[in-house]
Amino acid sequence: MSHPDSSSQECLAEDEEDEEEEEDTYCEGRKLSGESDAGSWFSNSPSQQPCVQHTSLRKYSRNSEPIAALEKSQSFQASGNNMVTRPLSSDRKPPSESDIVQYAQDNINRHKRGIFRKKFSLRDMLSWSKDPIRKPMIMTTDKSLKQDACDLFKLIQAYMGDRKSKATFNAVALDIATRGWSKQAIRDELYIQICRQTTENPRQESLVLGWELMAVCLGLFPPSATFKPYLESYIQRHRDPSSPVAAYAAACAQRLERGAQSGAKRGLRRPTVEEVEQSRAHIFRPSMFGNTLDEVMALQQERYPRRCLPWIQTTLSEAVLRLNGAQTEGIFRVPGDIDEVNALKVRMDQWQAVDSADPHVPASLLKLWYRELHEPLIPTAFYEECIENCNNPQVALSVVRRLPEINRYVLAYLVRFLQVFAAPENAAVTKMDSSNLAMVMAPNCLRCTSDDPQVIFDNTRKEMAFVRILIQTLDTKFMEGLL
């Protein structure tokens, strides 16, 4: 496959002469500046709203037919009824409407226009534009980002249908994803450009595609820790059920949260078309990775209605054993090739068999699946009890008995699986006894809730001790034959 840049250069080369001109007005029929300050523009007060309201905030009847833009969106066509969303936490403080505005006031590189070099108002800088940009939106001292930011804006316009392009839809998406994945410094610029193009967007189809693009990118790489709370604020504002992009906003919120924990797609290989398509499809058909156990079981309900365990857990575990992982030195400690692991992850989400000949690949993906569970395998409510009684077998067994049924089954299956590797005849070859197995698996079962590095360090040893106790003492005979 050719480099994505080569297939999308048409949309970047188009209208190059515009770079020599000043930017035109962003929205015809709207004042260029001075209509209102940024705070009132983003206010919820009806008396302060301008005559043309943000298209994603307009009220729509819940009983109305889906808008045409949603029907045309590829991700919506996938399966709108299968969307798995989570309500906002009741104890979370609602994000401030002015958060993104505050970020803009401190960081936006306000552009100029006209012979008098008049600066764009903050409102204009945060509103949809039909024209290209000549400078990055975010202030930066990195001169190499200038052209990258301008090219990125054109690509976003092309994806959203606001700019003509001879490149294919997937080629444009892949180019955007590749630029954001390969250059961390451009990610915040990318996300604020998408926020801009989904604000006061006059075309609903373009608006939906903009939110789709945001979800695709968040599935591959997160923004910086600095910009994350501002992007989160922007996304949460659009989760109102009356918004036509509420489902996209819910997906973006979930991916933003998960990305903040797991980071960007790992590996040396650039994103592929398949990974971009998968990220788009999973907006409404959630992945088996990064969800709760209940959600994973719901995903397989139609395909495997009688299963008591997640298909992905048993499939990967059996693959490790089939590939002689129990006799492979360093199993679970030596990582599999990261690009092969990523490729297998795509296959698993498509319900396809393991195709690797290296046991380290399914072993690494299995660890990743446990680690990326939205809620830890041993729920947070049990964490302190596990830590305080990390060397007490009776308490450990009591915790297992009191777990929710699906957590109990999944944990018991994992422990039974690890007991195979802990057997003396296998540990002698793999160099992975119960202590070493506990060391690599404990972070995938228990999740420390503290941000204090010292607490995390102290608890790591206790987490390992608790998992080691389970491997050594838990009777897992009741799991025999259970799938």
UniProtKB/TrEMBL annotation:
GO terms under biological process: signal transduction
InterPro entries: MyTH4_dom (IPR000857), MyTH4_dom_sf (IPR038185), Rho_GTPase_activation_prot (IPR008936), RhoGAP_dom (IPR000198)
Domain Rho-GAP, first and last residues per copy: 291-478
Domain MyTH4: 128-280
GO terms for cellular component: cytoplasm; cytoskeleton
A molecular function (GO) term: GTPase activator activity
Signal peptide residue numbers: none
Region (Disordered): 1-56, 73-97
Superkingdom assignment: Eukaryota
PROSITE patterns, per the entry: MYTH4 (PS51016), RHOGAP (PS50238)
Compositionally biased spans, kind Acidic residues: 12-26
Polar residues composition bias: residue spans: 1-10, 41-55, 73-88
Pfam families, A to Z: MyTH4, RhoGAP
Protein name: Putative rho gtpase-activating protein 39
Higher taxonomy: Eukaryota, Metazoa, Ecdysozoa, Arthropoda, Chelicerata
